Amino acid sequence: MASRRSYGSYNDGCAAAHALDLIGERWTMIIVRELLLGPKRFTDIQRDVIGIGPTVLTQRLHDLEGHGIVRRRQLPAPARADVYELTEWGSGLESVNTALSLWAVESPALPIEADMSPDTVVLAMRAHARASSGAREGQRVLLSLTDSRLGDSEPVTYLAAVTEEATTIRRTLMPESADAEVSATTKDWKACVIGGAALEELPEIRVVGSAEAVRLLISATSLGGGTRAAG
Q: Which keywords does this chain's UniProt record carry (predicted)?
């Protein structure tokens, strides 16, 4: 099968056109999105990117490696598993993902009711994260999200820090001290931070510790009632 011609081969020197040569294929930016918060195994990516087949995923990862956007490495013992992660240059695509999301929220065809992966919900929170004037002493929240698109998924844990200067959220694999711990499905948490639902309206969201810390996190990352999802 002949490879697709690049825009450069048509004497188009636009950098945006070249970017589309690198990441414009179907599924490519979705794979990148799922790697923005940290490395994943092939099976993890296939699980999180619902609808992609193993052959297509293999090809897209091969292309991303070839372009220097993704690299593959082996975790040390005892795991010894191969994972894919973004290179430093590839990590810069978070700002591209955010810009695309903020642009697309104006689309009348946006599937507002559709669910999102744990990383996608958190990326939406990061895109809208802001400082909190109410967090004078700073608040830390452990957020465990279970993918409600899948019946048997393990929760993914993130650590959020809310201060008067900024709000940050990152994926974490180790237990860390926090003022509050939250456990929720992606559907319920999306309803809270994107749909504007109050915590009290979602009794299946479990909060241990400071409820005020959780409310500060929601306030600092929420898109507001009725606002569409940017992920």
A: DNA-binding, Transcription, Transcription regulation
- Residue found by looking up tokens 């004037």 in the block: 133
CB contact at 8 A, 30 and 49:
yes
pLDDT in tens, the chain (231 residues): 456 788 888 888 999 999 999 999 999 999 999 999 999 999 999 999 999 999 999 999 999 999 999 999 998 877 778 999 999 999 999 999 999 988 888 889 988 889 999 999 999 999 989 888 777 678 999 999 999 999 888 999 999 999 989 999 999 987 788 999 999 999 999 999 988 888 889 999 999 999 999 999 999 998 754 344 456
Whether residue 38 is contained in a domain is answered as yes
Residue 135 in any domain: the answer is yes
For residue 10, the cross-strand partners are none
Q: Is residue 230 part of a domain?
A: no
Q: Is residue 108 part of a domain?
A: no
Q: Please give the structure tokens belonging to residue 66.
A: 């070839």
d(CA 186, CA 144): 9
pTM check: above 0.85: yes
Lookup: tokens for 19: 């970017």
Q: Cα 113 vs. chain centroid, distance in angstroms?
A: 17
Check if the beta carbon of residue 124 is closer than 8 Å to that of residue 102: no
